[in-house]
Amino acid sequence: MSEANGQSAAPHGNGDGREDRDVVLEVRDLTVGFGDVLVLENLSLELYRGEILGFVGASGSGKSVLLRTVLGLVPKRAGTIRLFGVDLDQASEAQNILIDMRVGVLFQHGALFSALTVLENVQVPMREYLDLPKALMDELALLKIELVGLPRSAAGKYPSELSGGMIKRAALARSLALDPDIVFLDEPTSGLDPIGAADFDELVGKLRDTMGLTVYMVTHDLDSLLTACDRIAVLGDRRVLVEGPVQTMMESEEPWVKSYFRGKRARRIDVDARA
Questions:
Q1: What is the per-residue burial (b if ≥16 Cβ within 10 Å, else e) of 129-145?
Q2: What is the pLDDT of residues 108-142, one digit of tens each?
Q3: What is the maximum span of the chain, computed from C-alpha positions, in angstroms?
Q4: For residues 3 and 7, what is the distance between their CA atoms, to the nearest angstrom?
Q5: 237 — phi, psi (to 5°)?
Q6: Tens digits of residue pLDDT in 243-260
Q7: Per-position DSSP letters for 84-135, written without gaps between them
Q8: How many other CB atoms are there within 10 angstroms of residue 164's CB atom?
Q9: Please, are residues 52 and 217 in contact by the beta-carbon 8 Å criterion?
């Protein structure tokens, strides 16, 4: 998969013992606010090619605001956002289109169009960016539906006819419609039972491995952070407080991080086995 402008960021060690990888998302000194309230201030973050990054923080800390700012849905007051080496403030219209086609998004609760079938929902990005015959679009959409573990019979159903887990998978299929390089997942396991959440985490990992995806996952699910993510970033005080593998979280003395990962409701894990 080529870079949007023929450039890649300098390799950066990710601290997990694997080879250096390119930075595909770089956020520098980002400040976002609403009125007199600053939600993010001088926040910096990197996302490396091929990793699953779990992004966590207290409710109302600005996790979804950051995701929506990266996607261009919320304006920023200061800072730089680079995707695939392209400064989004300097990108041309053609570059923006190419970048949009390389990004998939699963919004919280799925955000499927209620008047469209699953097949039609998956085809929305195809209709927006591609000029394909209907028969080919149908077949491609069916392949994405099967890829996320849904039966072909789900293609003709409407969102109101789906379970919560099926809605998440259908929304994931739509996010994969254009074979993106990066997928942004906003609370993908919220509302799912523990078995369904574990199955979804496993699916994300398999898709990462088979499709070469890079995954940015906003989540409150401790199990997802511990079992599915290569690296974790913690948001607090309007910035990234701590980032690194699980072991870094378990050793951190930041009060919120310590309470979340080592508090009463945290479960014991074998950090050495994951290192």
A1: eeeeeeeebbebbbebb
A2: 777 899 999 999 999 999 999 999 999 999 999 99
A3: 57
A4: 6
A5: 55, 35
A6: 999 999 999 999 999 988
A7: TTEETTT--HHHHHHHHHTEEEE-TT----TTS-HHHHHHHHHHHH----HH
A8: 14
A9: yes
**Dist CA 140 CA 181 (whole Å):** 17
Cβ atoms of 228 and 217 within 8 Å: the answer is yes
β-strand partners of 21? 12
Alpha helices in 32-92 (DSSP H): 63-70
pLDDT at residue 74 tops 90: yes
Distance between CA atoms of residues 21 and 47, nearest Å: 10
Length of the chain: 275
pLDDT for the residue numbered 263: 77
pLDDT for 41: 95
The answer to whether the beta carbons of residues 232 and 249 sit under 8 Å apart is yes
Angle at 85 between CA 80 and CA 91, to 5 degrees: 65
Confidence (pLDDT) at 265: 59
pLDDT score recorded for residue 267: 57
| More confident position, 3 or 63 | 63
Residue 153 dihedral angles phi and psi, to the nearest 5°: -65, -20
The answer, yes or no, to whether residue 58 has pLDDT greater than 90, is: no
Q: Please check whether residue 69 is in contact with residue 33, taking contact to mean a CB–CB distance below 8 angstroms.
A: no
- Is the backbone of residue 158 left (phi > 0), alpha (psi -120 to 50) or beta? beta
Tokens of 163: 């379970």
Q: How far apart are CA 66 and CA 274, in angstroms?
A: 28
| Predicted local confidence at residue 95, as pLDDT | 95
